[in-house]
Amino acid sequence: MSDMAIQQVLAQMRALQVQAGGTPEQAAPAAEQNRFSDLLHQSINKVAENQSVAGELSTSFSSGDPDTDLTSVMIAMQKSRVSFEAMVEVRNKLVEAYNEIRRMPI
Hints:
Number of domains: 1
Radius of gyration: 20 Å
Number of strands: 0
Order of helices and strands: HHH
Distance between the termini: 26 Å
């Protein structure tokens, strides 16, 4: 989910809160929003880094580099796979939560 989409979801949540009788001051502070956005960006960057490392180790091993062992390649590949699957699950949960909020009657 892009940063723009996340910001749109947050804006819609704030609008719904105001419509429900809440005040904009009760909305989450901007610092907390930035922390969530930063955390999401860091997580995505870490997944990309894991995939890059796994790819580099795999290429290095298949080219016959004596400093690269099969164990480190397999561990890096599994780490990459697990982090990607976790990221997909988080995305699915965010989309599910957004859709649930969107379906709420006003």
